[in-house]
Amino acid sequence: MDNKILVTGIGVISAIGNSVPENLSSLRSAQSGIGPIRYLETVHKNDFMVGELQLSNDDLCEFMEIAAKDKIKHSRTSLMTLAAAREALMDCGLAKGEFEGRRVGFISATTVGGMDKSENHYHSRDLASGFVRTHSTGDSGERVAECLGIDSYHTTLSTACSSAANAIMHGARLINHGKLDMVLVGGVDPLSRFTLNGFNSLMILDREWCSPFDENRRGLNLGEGAGFVMLESAASAEKRGAQVYCRLAGYANANDAYHQTASSPDGDGAFRSMEKALIMSGLKPSEIDYINVHGTGTSNNDLSEGVALKRVFGNHLPPFSSTKSFTGHTLGASAGIEAVFSILAIKQGLIYPNLNFRKAIQELGISPAEKLISDRTVNNVLSNSFGFGGNNSTLIFSK
After folding, report:
1. Which of 92, 147, 210, 329 is catalytic?
2. Which of 2, 77, 242, 264 is the most buried (most CB within 10 A)?
């Protein structure tokens, strides 16, 4: 049996659009979604730029056709998850719960889960607010799985900013081991006071637009959103005549355990995750056509990733860019959103620009793509996602 893992549906919501077509349009036109804080209630409202959805929670409920009586059940996290996951499910040609005996799973990934709702609980004047309340990180995923009628398998992963990449890997393994026929995988994270204050305490937030891989980079812009893809066995896709975007050709995770909040200066973990993913895919480094880098815009991260890239690709580095300059750093959602962008790069033949880049990092001497490239074939895309604590993940998508 052909054991290829195919991508048969995609869905995304981010600061640059509420759907795949809207996100693609913004990527093509180099339109960033990063700007002043609009909806998040914080004392830092005028201090930092963020990649915030252009929808309030009420707007999201209306967008998702959530009944008024059910609004209280949903956090911003679950609403974004539902938007992207439902789009991917519909894109693959299936409707809610109509799986015709197929074993369909749902794996969501997140860093802070429904923290936006938890924060509101803590500030509530409700008499019950004095009691300790728990809000499971997996709550949003459970609600969405129920809304979509998926009951064969569902779980939630959390490995910081590599969370969604690990969700995709876990889904692929479940299909390869014959546990599922299809699995909806991805990640989500909302903007919250918790994350904004946390990254501010690390002094790695940019007060203007972030500039990944630039010599004068000053830090990252936080963002929010969700990105999901439908993975499917080749046998299942063939049987139902599904559309196929591409295949998940390789994936790997490598831990460096260098520091709680910093990447190793030699890029060892990132190097090993890319090397292992390439070996799994059977591709040579020279066969990668585009790299969607982790590229947060922080001094440490970009330098470390750049060192790793040079170790893997030598003097033949393919075009690369960070789409976080469009969306902001969406934490646990980033690998899911960037997986969708990587798949679109193959489908549309695109290499996205790295916005706000002006000067190469002196220690590296490498420059990302500065303008949209749309005149070449893109067969293989490598996408990196690295999390605090040294959790490094790489995905490779191939035509």
Report:
1. 329
2. 77
Q: How many helices (H) and strands (E) does the chain have?
A: 12, 12
Count other Cβ atoms within 10 Å, centred on residue 95.
Answer: 11
Distance, CA of 35 to CA of 397 (rounded, Å): 31
**Per-residue pLDDT reduced to its tens digit, 76-131:** 999 999 999 999 999 999 987 788 788 999 999 999 877 776 666 656 555 455 44
* Secondary structure (3-state) at 305: helix
Question: Which tens digits make up the pLDDT trace of 289-310?
Answer: 999 999 999 999 999 999 999 9
Q: Two tokens at 101? A: 């005996």
Return d(Cα 218, Cα 77) in angstroms, integer: 28
Supply 46's token pair: 């005028």
Residue type, 366: I
Q: Pairing mode, if any, of strands 380-387 and 290-292?
A: parallel
The residue written with tokens 């260098």 in the block is 258
Cα separation, 372 vs 350, whole angstroms: 7
Q: Which CATH topology does 249-398 take?
A: Peroxisomal Thiolase; Chain A, domain 1 (3.40.47)
pTM summary value: 0.95
Catalytic residue among 92, 161, 210, 246: 161
Domains 5-246 and 249-398 share a fold: yes
CA–CA dist 55, 62 (Å, integer): 10
Q: Report domain extents, the chain.
A: 5-246, 249-398
- Based on the residue annotation, tell me whether 294 is a catalytic residue of this protein: yes
* 329 given a catalytic annotation: yes
Distance CA 158, CA 137 (A): 8
Q: Where are any strands of DSSP class E within the chain?
A: 5-13, 35-36, 49-50, 104-109, 153-157, 182-189, 225-233, 246-255, 290-292, 320-321, 380-387, 391-398
First-to-last CA distance in the chain? Answer: 20
Evaluate whether the domain defined by 5-246 bears CATH number 3.40.47.10. yes
Catalytic-residue membership of 177: no
> What are the pLDDT digits (tens) for 238-283?
999 999 999 999 999 998 877 766 777 889 999 999 999 999 999 9
Among residues 147, 210, 246, 294, which one is catalytic? 294
